[in-house]
Specification:
single chain; mainly alpha; rod-shaped
Length: 53
């Protein structure tokens, strides 16, 4: 979708920006979830959870 919308960037910018934004949001959410899972499951990282409370 991003590559197809690239042709029409000057006419209809949302055809490439909105799918690109969806990719960015998905990537950020996956990274946050993976970081949380690592902290929650790794015994060496549990001190970080204890310090936040």
């Amino acid at each position: 979708m991003v590559a197809q919308g690239r042709e029409y960037l000057s006419i209809a910018w949302w055809q490439s920006v909105l799918p690109g934004l969806a990719i960015v949001i998905t990537t950020v959410c996956a990274n946050v979830l993976a970081q949380w899972l690592r902290i929650a499951t790794d015994p060496g990282q549990r001190w970080r959870l204890a310090n936040k409370k």
